Amino acid sequence: MGPHKATVKGSSSGAAAKKKAKSKVKKKTNFFDLRDGAVKACWENILGHVLILKKPILVDESHWRYDRKPLPHETPSAAKEWTPGMSELGSKVYFSENTFYFNSNSTFDRWTAVNRTSGKLLRKVGVDITSALTSLVDGIQRCSGLQELRIGVNEVQFVETMCQPEHGFRHDRKRPKDITPQLNLLVLRTNGMDKLRETHVPKVKFTPLVHGSITDITIAKRTTGPIRHGTLEKVVAKEMMIPKEVVTSTYETNAVIPIPKRKPAVDSDDEYNPGKRSAKRARVGTRSTPARAAKSRISAIGALAIAAELDPQAESEPEPDVEAVQEATEKASTLATTPQAFQILNLPAELRNQIYRHILVIDGPVNPSKRIPTTHHRAGTNLPEKALYRSGTAPSSCLALLQTNKQVSKEASVFFYQNAFVFYYPNQMMMFLQTISEDRKQYIEQITLWYHNLRQGDTDSIDVYLSAVGSLKKLRIFELMLDDGAMYHLERYRRAGTSFAGESSLKEMVKGGLDVRVRSQNVDTYFWKRKRNPAHDASSLMRFRASRGAIRNLQSRIRSISTTDEVESSRESSDSSEQ
């Protein structure tokens, strides 16, 4: 028993000695575990040469799943050899210094939802918009370190989606040049646009769809992108780049506007100025309430009592009317804080004309209507009726300037009616012409009307509309726009060899010296896209060629009347000269 016990004791003491020796051995130091700033910066530079790429990194649907494929430079073999410190530092360099392109906003949303830690490190991101903007907003909110955001859009498609007949517009294909500033504002009603405008990123730029949604980048640049100087560039991008602190301070300032304190001027012969001694006066810029008025009366009476004690002669003087003094003081305070009205008629006529032109004249045609302003609508297409509009009063029309007085109305109306007008439906034009006076009709110079005809008996409604247009004496340019239905009838009449409904009225307008133009926006847009993308909708090429030929044939028939008249008049003049 003894030797055996000794052996066990010896073995236990040997194990304890080995543990003690191991504890004295220092652990190996890993450079990535050091917290020294210089060492960390050195390794960031080394990893930067390996992990930072010159080209953007494309992220598609395969990278947002839980069993996602590794991104470039995320090889499994290298990842196994990385220490925790190296992995953390490498991820920081990789995700914060590279530029990542997402081929759709849904991919961006799902990838940031799955990779929340990596999403917070992203600083430079490009996203193509292929669905509702709400998913883009969710992804932006997860990227707390985002500094640069490139948003690939097709702004023309946004406008086409929001141009619905129930809102008084035409749902047709459009080119960027066909979208007026008035139509461009419809972008603000796109689903999710309100939330997007509330996000804040230091640098925002709208681009064509060049982040992976379209394979051919050249065609994407030709056919997509924001409208130059449009709503996305001038309104949305600028609002997103406003710092959040500035927006918050502006909101607080607008919520409670501090009124500057001013001392009301007191005349030397003021009744309430006993002995020119200082007395407590009412505050300037505050509303009078019963409690405040009572407090002011008490303060005034107290001041009179103090003044009487300091100046014995004041006791013999008659006591002033405190209520009258208080009323006069409040009136003086109101006049001091009320801004003086600016008289526009005091300006020279040249400056007034510049103001009228800046307010009332816009680029592109104007569609006069009684619709609620677009900026008062909330963004969205399927909103309930109670949530259609923003809270508060709707912004007033610039035409309210014409209701100021007779002189301003007479001077400014000249500029408004010099705009080019567009009417999407003939009834809009007829109501507009019936509403305005004959004097204002004389200023109209250009009108665009979308074709619509209804035959009743032996009369075409288009002839009635065209006769109303022909009655405008100062009209120089008239453009007739044909939709798909009108193109169908035009081609049918062409095959039958009969005249197009309204053709005779157009010929009469040309005889009167009016510049008449006929075109189809759908046909023009199709060939505009074909010019930039030869593979665009090749199956419809023959149909659109026939439509374009029918339009050219109609234009030649209309204008041939004027050329024939010119030839006949020249012949008559030559015959008379010979005689």
Automatic annotation (TrEMBL):
This is Uncharacterized protein. PANTHER family: 2EXR DOMAIN-CONTAINING PROTEIN-RELATED. It comes from the Eukaryota. Residues 1-21, 265-293 are annotated as: Disordered.
